[in-house]
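Hey, I'm writing a tutorial for new members on how sequence and structure tokens pair up, and I'd like a real worked example in the thread rather than a made-up one. If someone can provide the structure for the chain below, I'll link this post from the tutorial.
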Amino acid sequence: QVQLVESGGGSVQAGGSLRLSCAASVSGYAYSRYCMGWFRQAPGKEREGVAAITSDGSTGYTESVKGRFTISRDNAKNVLYLQMISLKPEDTAMYYCAATWRSSNTCPELTVHRFGYWGQGTQVTVSS
């Protein structure tokens, strides 16, 4: 079982930065055995994958955030991060942390149905 709690959201102007955190409480398997991801959902839109990271730090990003967002994790502290710079109004959304257990050091396709554990989300609002 995994419980995820996001923090760090807020309101910024375009061009600004935010750092999201996701604290994980795990039982059974170690946190390091989970692929971790960030997703976001804007009003009226489907939830979309933003970034994912394997247990040893390999990362993947959706095209629209490459070069602006950086996902990272601290396996000793059970924390996931998303550093966001050069924020744009189109980045406005509820951001969710997600996890999925993996038998190997990989991540699945960055789609909603491939991740089984979810946080409650943290709101990011970027004004122009």
